[in-house]
Please model this.
Amino acid sequence: MDHGGHIVLDGASNIRDLTWLLGRHSAGTTRVLRSANLDRLSPEGRRRFSELGIGVVIDLRGKAEAAEAPDLEGTTRVHLPIEPNVVASLVAQQAAGTLSAASAMRVMERTYRHYIVDHVAVFAALLNHVLAAKRRSVLFHCAAGKDRTGVAAALLLTALDVPRAAIVADYLLSNRFYRPTGARDADILPDDVREAIVKVQASYLDAAFAAMTEGWGGPDGYLEKALAIGSRERAAIREALT
Model:
């Protein structure tokens, strides 16, 4: 899947304009973008960022991860933390002698279920910030812009009635656009395990959708019953972005 919404910023990666999936190409109206963290934007990256017209930056990282979050002029920063736990789980498996690439994938699938079940308030707040943007473009991100951000993007796109196949295709583009920077906690893990958590897999996002089906009857039920994003709110989000 080619992505006409891909944006290049020096010092950051995995930046995509989700409104491109709605057939939107205009930079003059409200947009929603997803990205990896913005902590290392260069001066040129900051200059380019300022041209994007982003009014709200939503940071989904945990408290320690977000400690170096930059002050980006002209934006309101909103911190909606989802604490990371994947590496700690894998290190515990390593100590117990049970770690493998397959077990790492199972941890990722459980983690995506955990996002859906245990972070209702975070995703409800994020969608309401998009709903309230009123012509201020919104960018949301986590550390790599692929897992926590990937689930948030899937929920937003579901609310916008984007077909599931397009949602998954966009999600998988993180394997193309994410570029790790600096040392990571995952670097202590074996290569095959690290590959399982640095790359996204369709089965991870499938686990999130399965949790919605098991708990709320499906993605539409999750949006309405868990996040209070019903038909009226979905119509308002579509109106804002199309």
